[in-house]
C-alpha cells in the first residue's frame, strides 16, 4: 500500500525545452510571448517555469524579483527595436534621405509583424502602469530625436525639422498598424509618397 501511494505521488521528471542552460534572454522571450498572447498579468514566475520546464531556482538565478524580469523585458525592447535599429540604419550610409527611406520601410519587413505585436502589447501595458509608460516615453523620445536629426542633416532648421520628424514618425507608426489590413498601395509607392510628403517643400 505504501509503495502504491509512493508511486502515485512521485513527481514526474522536469521536461526541459532546450538542452543548453537557460540565459536571461530565454526568460525575456518567454515573458514577451505571454505579454503578447495574454497581458502582463499572465507573466507569473510559476507560469514561466512551467513553460520553460525548469524550477524557480533557475528564475532566481537570473532575476531577484518578477519586477526585475519586467524591467529586463523593457530594456530588451528598447535595445532591439530602437537602439539596434538606429545603429543599423546609421551605418548603412551617410545620405539622410536614404536613412529616412529605410525607416519608412521598417513596418513592411519580414520580421516586422512580430515586432509590431510586442510594440502594441507594451504600449497597451503602458496605458495602465508607470514603469512601461516611462520606457515608452523614453523610446519615443530617442526615435523622435533621431528622425529630427535626419531632417536637420537635410538642411531644415530646428523647428521645421521637428515638425517633419513628427509627421514621419506618425507615418511609420501608423503604417505598422494599418498596412496589414488596409493597404491601397505597394511598398515602393508608399515609400515614395511618404518621402515626398515629409521632405517636399513646406506649404505656407
TrEMBL record:
The entry's keywords: DNA-binding
Record lineage: Bacteria, Pseudomonadati, Pseudomonadota, Alphaproteobacteria, Rhodobacterales
Domain HTH tetR-type, residue spans: 21-81
GO molecular function, one term: DNA binding
Organism of provenance: Actibacterium naphthalenivorans
Region (Disordered): 1-22
Record Pfam families: TetR_N (PF00440)
Coiled-coil positions: none
Name recorded for this polypeptide: AcrR family transcriptional regulator
Residue range(s) of DNA binding per entry: 44-63
InterPro entries with a match to the protein in the record: Homeodomain-like_sf (IPR009057), HTH_TetR (IPR001647)
